[in-house]
Design a protein that fits this description.
- With 295 residues, the protein is mainly alpha-helical.
- It folds into two domains: 83 residues, DNA polymerase, domain 1, CATH 1.10.150; 178 residues, Intergrase catalytic core (hpI Integrase, Chain A).
- Helix content is 56%, strand content 4%.
- The protein has 13 helices and three strands.
- It has a three-stranded antiparallel β-sheet with strand order 1-2-3, with no helix packed on it.
- A hairpin with a 5-residue loop joins strand 2 and strand 3.
- Helix 6 packs antiparallel against helix 8.
- The chain starts with a helix and ends with a helix.
Length: 295
């Protein structure tokens, strides 16, 4: 039953492999809990009380509110599927409230520091590996793309004449992101070094490649970004997503409207973008200093 649901998510809903894996882990975790804790209880006979006890058990094991919300969402979506397939008639998760998540202000690199990092690690050298690593950092900051979007970026997704990048985001939703002439120069230099580094037969359509000519993988990019940020900042977090936060924060600080930032980030809801308003102290202070009589 779970496996059929996962196939449905992939083929019909077009969820990413990462999302499907999360749903799979959550559902089998709940199934195991039912088997180990209760007798003769199945998904079809489960009650809200049992689901609350599962969530409470996870909370006692120090799972974060964010994780609990995801697990509850996974289970709720599964029950909607069961109702759709006429396997059950009700969703026992329906009236269970979501665990509250404390407001977390996104971690980001300040504008001066990120520009210094990029300028000090540009890809003007003749070293393919150094050029690629520097371009990964700049691409993440200059476009705000997700890690998964960077990894799956194809050569054909880049329009070198119009300076646009086509991104395939969550659920295969496409969006277009502009980029600068400066980034174009770095991309062209990287392409030249990539061509010289590999034999023509070794290069596939992936834009970024590992040292062996393969598609990038998450840990590979994490290490590159972590190394750059560890050497140049004291941030508590040093993941690729920090550069996405940095992209959005700097846009907002320099006057971009939330709707435009939402579209560039590929958010489905403006609510997801509004977290960046909490980081915009610099812009608020400028407005205050310019407009308030007592400033």
């Amino acid at each position: 039953m779970i496996e059929e649901y996962l196939k449905y998510l992939k083929k019909e809903k077009r969820y990413s492999n990462h999302t499907i894996l999360s749903y799979k882990n959550d559902l089998y975790s709940f199934k195991k809990y039912l088997e180990n804790t209760f007798e003769n209880i199945t998904f079809e006979t489960c009650t809200p009380t049992i689901i609350r006890s599962w969530l409470a058990d996870l909370a006692e094991k120090k799972h974060s509110p964010k994780t609990l919300r995801r697990k509850k969402t996974s289970l709720s979506s599964f029950y909607k599927y069961l109702i759709y397939m006429n396997i059950t008639k009700s969703n026992p998760t329906k009236n269970i409230p979501m665990p509250k998540i404390p407001l977390q202000i996104p971690v980001f690199v300040d504008e001066r520091s990120i520009l210094e990092i990029i300028n000090n690690n540009d890809n003007s050298s003749d070293d393919f590996i150094s050029a690629r690593n520097a371009l990964i950092l700049e691409m993440l900051y200059a476009t705000g793309i997700r890690l998964s979007e960077l990894i799956t970026l194809k050569d054909s997704d880049i329009d070198y004449h119009k300076l646009l990048i086509k991104i395939r985001g969550k659920r295969d939703k496409e969006r277009i992101i502009p980029f600068s002439n400066e980034l174009l120069l770095r991309i062209n230099q990287y392409n030249k070094l990539k061509k010289d580094f590999f034999e023509a037969s070794e290069i596939d359509n992936n834009f970024f490649l590992t040292n062996s000519g393969k598609q990038l993988y998450p840990k590979f990019v994490y290490r590159i970004v972590n190394d750059f940020l560890s050497e140049n900042t004291n941030l508590s977090k040093k993941s690729p997503h920090v550069l996405r936060h940095t992209f959005a924060t700097h846009l907002l600080q320099n006057g971009a409207d939330l709707k435009s930032i939402k579209d560039l980030l590929g958010h489905s809801s403006l609510a997801s973008t509004q977290i960046y308003t909490h980081t915009n102290i610099k812009q608020l202070k400028k407005v205050y200093d310019k407009t308030h009589p007592k400033s």
